[in-house]
Amino acid sequence: MYTLTATGKPLNTTHATPAKGDSIKGTTMSSYNRTFNLSVNDVDLIEEALRARGRELCRMRRALSDGNPADMESIRVIEEDQRSGEELLGRLHDQKIFYRPKTSVYVGG
Q1: In whole angstroms, how large is the CA radius of gyration of the chain?
Q2: Are 69 and 37 contacting, i.e. CB atoms less than 8 angstroms apart?
Q3: pTM (global) more than 0.70
């Protein structure tokens, strides 16, 4: 099992959710869940989905022309999405612990 810990911004940014301690009609809201237990298969599925999304964004980007001013905003948004997906893949990769035998010589392959 992987345990991923969220840092920084809230994970769900599509809805305006009150911060911890804020209240709605006198009730206190709970905080965000910052710890997630994911299996290795879950992480593999997330990585594959991110790679598929990156391939789709690449196809969309190649369909647009750099010379067309009408396409410039779309290109900017697509490239920003590509960058954020690649950064997320990198963060997932950096959290992995790879097996290396301690008693014998490791031969990668």
Answers
A1: 20
A2: no
A3: no
